[in-house]
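Exercise 3.2. Students should predict the tertiary structure of the chain below and write it as structure tokens, then compare their answer with the key that follows.

Predict this chain's 3D structure.
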Amino acid sequence: MSETILDRDRKKRVARLQIIFVVVFLLFAAIILRLAQLQIKQGKEYAVDLVTRSTKKDAVPAMRGNIYDRNRNLIAESIPSFHVVFREEEAMEKGDYLWIANRLEAILSHTDKATILKRMDVGYDYVNGSLIRVERKLPKYLEKDLKSDLGPLEIAALAEHREELKGIEVVTKPIRKYNAKQIAVQAVGYVRPFHIAENLGMEGYKQEQDRYLPTQFVGFDGIELFYETELRGENGYRLYEVAADQTIIRELEGMAPVRGNDLILTLDERVQLEVREYIRQFLPELRAKIPEAAHAKGAYVVAMEIDTGKIVAMVSYPEYDPNIWMEGPDQQTYEQIQLSVTNGTIREAPYDTRPLTGEEAVQEGHKHPRSIVPSGSVLKPITILLGLQEGIITPHDRWNDPGVYRYGKGTDRVKNDNGQIHGILTPEKSLQKSSNTYMAKIGEQLARTKGRESVSLLQKYYHAFGIGIKTEVDLPYENKGKEDFMVMSEQYGPLAAMVQASFGQQARATAMQLAQFAATIANKGVRLKPQMVEAIISPDGKTLRSFAPSVISTFPHPDEYWDILTAGMVMVTKPGGTAVRAFEGLPYQVAAKTGTSEQDIYVPYKQVVDETGKAKTKWKFHRRITNGVSIAYAPADKPKLAVAVIVPEGGYGGRSAAVITRAVFEAYDKHIGLTPF
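Answer key:
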């Protein structure tokens, strides 16, 4: 019986299914054999590999925001740089350190093995051809920067010798670069690694370990510190899978760093540099020409716009190059720059004792004043205003100046400079002539009518102008000055305190305070906050914040009283005034007041032990010096700019501080403009 077509089709399907079953069987057999091989033969190898794999999280430091002047001229910037760093390995010994230093000395330019070893911070220094034991400055585990801003040849040489240079690596980090012109360096400040700030216990950084890398630069002073949160940005990271030998297998995840915000300052580079250069040339001439100013080596200047409080120029002279902080100055360099680092316009800066160093420099420093000195006659406008308001004098007061004023029981006296007799004085003319006796008369009568309240009243007036309290400028570490009249009142009573304070000898103010004081007179009692930053700008160029004028306080008095102060201060710059030569020939009127403050200098001469066993220093009188001080604003009829200048040991203020003040007005008028035309 023959097969049907249907039977033949069925047989073909069965045959095909059999073939498929065989193929599937063979595939499963191969898979099973492979799994067996992986599990039995290579299982141990894969288990070891799995165990030895780990992850590594590398932080990516953020670029710090830039700092610009008001015209967008760059003052400080962050740029990527190649660094050679040292990570100490556990088995390293004394010989390894020296070997590495010797090899790096041959590779790195402009450095030597002694400097390299010091930066490696391994507990040894290289001195006179041998290693000596020293204390480590930082924890062993921290990465140490040996040199930044590497050149192509240095990078290539380090790469070539990578295997033999254990612990040495080339990494990319942002570095801070400051304008080589040295623009307001103390006001701008500087940066240093975070671990140094942490070790010093700096406020603001104590709880910030998670935000910074140990070697990441952070603000240490000035704008860099005050606006740290705006400038720093946010660090990123990369998470890698790594093998046991720390080679990277793959990147698992990451977050890009966020660059910090930029700052636009109120400072004007042109005015700042022109004033600084003028001071650089003027001080040697002053020392050569004026015997009383033979030791004048510093000057402190603040120029403040009256309507806004914006600081246009801030000079703390002498200055220095802040770029030295990038590598970290050695001891010798630090001893030199420490005399210039402090911003003497807002706190006490030391006298420049260079070229002396060490103990010799310390002893010489005792013989000279610091940057905060008795303010002297520049405070006399406050005495006049106080006398007018309290009815001690009238706007039309006339008084015959005797040249010497006796007070108390008649045994104490105050005299004018060189005992000059100025004749009939009005309130305005008393300012022009800077009469001590006129001021002493006001001080004595206030003390007699108000007793101890007179001292508190004087303090109230000083504070209303920013003297004796902080100006609230946006800079760290501001000093509020000294109110010596308060101490004198406690020791000798209000009469002595008020008379001595009346002509400015019992208060010490910073240049910033004096600039705010001058601007407050010009603003008829409205005291503005000094402003260092004009705007905060995001990385993409958007303005995040701009700063409007901020009124701290008002001190209302009749316009007639303010007009008397302005008229008297204008007369200071006219014939018969104490600053006529400094301001003659200007196309606008200047309202000014000069001061020549006397200061007694004491030096240490021996150490004694008190009854508690503590060592104390005995001091003795060394000499009396005179400091030059000046405040001014211009134009007098429509005030635009207030200026304060302090020249420690500058002699007469009219021949030192006032001359620099004129240079500030001329620089501002040249580049910005004091008058509409």
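Discussion points: The chain has a mean pLDDT of 89. The first strand starts at residue 54 and ends at 60.
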